[in-house]
Task: inverse folding
């Protein structure tokens, strides 16, 4: 676990270290089993493209979870994440090539709040495209 970030060491503009995660089709199978979300668009290329998607896509909540993990890794304590919200702006397309897709999470402290809390604004991309918008976390430091 990373060292716990202290409020005294943080100011508006403090950047979180970028975190890159790789998502493969095998990860989608594992996530489906854990979440119970077996929607066909997360494993069947033919169905995904028939419904207008560019291919098999990662579960939205998996993508949101990867972004949350970047915040908790920075904070050094999963319990420090007290509020979290995202909007899904574009799917993460996961090719069937054994390599998968990269999800890159970057963030910066956007506001210092009361009681030692900070608001972190996140930028989450895959393939150079923003996949989450209005991604924000409130962290208790």
Result:
């Amino acid at each position: 676990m990373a060292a716990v970030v202290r409020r005294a060491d943080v100011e508006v503009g403090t950047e979180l270290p970028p975190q890159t995660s790789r998502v493969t089709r095998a990860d989608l199978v594992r996530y489906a089993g854990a979440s119970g979300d077996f929607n066909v668009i997360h494993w069947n290329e033919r169905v995904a493209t028939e419904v207008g998607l560019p291919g098999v896509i990662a579960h939205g909540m998996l993508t949101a979870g990867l972004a949350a993990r970047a915040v908790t890794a920075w904070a050094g304590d999963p319990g420090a994440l007290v509020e979290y919200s995202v909007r899904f702006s574009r799917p993460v397309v996961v090719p069937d090539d054994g390599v998968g897709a990269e999800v890159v999470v970057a963030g910066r402290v956007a506001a210092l709040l009361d009681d030692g809390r900070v608001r972190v604004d996140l930028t989450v991309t895959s393939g150079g495209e923003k996949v989450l918008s209005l991604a924000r976390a409130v962290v208790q430091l």
Observations:
- Residues 81 and 139 are 5 Å apart (CA to CA).
- The radius of gyration is 16 Å.
